[in-house]
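How a chain folds remains the central question behind the approach discussed here. In the encoding step, the backbone of a single protein was reduced to a row of integers, each denoting a local shape. We regard such an encoding as a compact summary of how the chain folds. The sequence in question and its structure tokens are set out directly beneath this paragraph:

___
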Amino acid sequence: MELIDQHTKTIMEGCKERARDAGLRFEDESLEYIVTNRDLIELSPKVMIPTLYDYWVHDVEVLKEKGKYELYPGNPYETVINTRPAISFYNDNNPDWLNVMIFYHVLAHIDFFQNNLFFRHTWDYDFNGEALSDKRAIAKLRAERGRWVDYVIEFTRGIDNLVGYHSLLSGIFHTPDASISAKVDYYFDIYLQDVAKANISKYIKELERYNVSVKEDPALGEQNFFARIDRRHPEFGSLFKKHQEEKPQKPKDLLQFIMENSKMLRREENQWMLMVMQVIRKTGLFFQPQIRTKIMNEGWASYWHETLYLSDDRIKGHEVDFARVNAGVTAMPRVGLNPYALGMRLFYFLEEMAEKGKISWAFQRTRDAKARKDFDIQSGQGKDFIFKVRENFSDFTFIHNFVDQDFINKNNLFVAGKRLNKQKMVWEYYVKSRRVEDYREMLMASLYHPPHIEVDLKKTKENALYLIHHFEGKPLLADYIPNTMLGIEYLWGGPVQLETTEVMASPSTQRMPAIPGLAAKSDSPKPRKLKWRRVLYTMKERKLSKNIL
């Protein structure tokens, strides 16, 4: 692995200048390295971070990928990591024209990392340098503690997707409104909603009454507003006083709670485990935004490498070469999902929509098909709009807000189904649906969404940790429950209980045998409605039991 030569660096600096002229924003300092394909194979299990801690699972993945590469050699072109400064890796056999395309792709990634709000906890973070320090510390512990270090890593990685990512983001750049008192916050956020159980209409009326009171008399408006509440709800004052006396507990993710409250980890001989767990948690938090913006991030990079490459005067004569490589990267598959292709097409679609003024209430109210097609107020806001989308959205909101029927029709998209052809004894794919609701549901199902599991403080007692899985339509993977709970029991130092939801087993319907002379019934079984039930798993002394609630 070595730094790129001066010739290639000059090409990169030219790409930076053109990218900035187009509106991309990124820090000046960056590092670029030349590597072989085998180097990239060894970096892949470490999420391309060369300084990440050593772990046996990484070694297994390297061996597996090397085996694949021997059979199916390929060129992965590049990779970039979000650190300060940004670091990117390039194959040693890339020609100059290909490097131009790749540099634009990388620069768009860096622009996304350094401007998308979901990455804001990484904006001033030299993760690569800190990971090197952590790697050395874990290596030292492994020399002292042996395999127990790997046990702690494995048990912690079993729940490293339950880190409080959104809680971390909410605490950054948050400035409370000094003009709103704690009493007002309590009344609208807690009393009306949780105590009085007010409906939406009542809530809005009270909000309007408060705004009028403050507007009419800025000095005494709040006092006048609460005078009426004190007359009608005499218990409000004592409830608010009690709320102030209670020390509010900040919500903690599972890893954080265990690290702060496990009696086993507080023992002097086990203090080293906390350092290992902190490294795993920090790493999990660092990679959360990349998992949640895969479609947007790759789509943004693909949009810009195509847009900037085609306007670059240095690549004349290589248009066909570019078209061949670009088609392989951004082709839209008929079955499956290509985040590069989907994200790029959605950004092009949004740019065109905003350019014509279709991102507006006036367009949304238009129902006539011809009028929608011809709608064009020439707003000139296309580029500005996609930059705002790049800054403020994640994959979930990106898809939820912008994948509509017009986008489906324009790109000829559909949901593919799979069925068995009994005559030919082959599986066939067919167009199952072209409705936006079905296509959007398919995309949503493919997104990263960790289970919502919290510690129940009221039921956590006598050294037993009680976890509640808030069911969101998908059950936990049953095969992983025993080993994961075993790891939590070890880290917690006591019994662990997990309340979750699973499918009730339903008896299969008995089919009557065919009777000669009578028409046979259809072989297509009627879809059965799933029934769910709450269950409680208990891991105690490395033995798992389950009870139906």
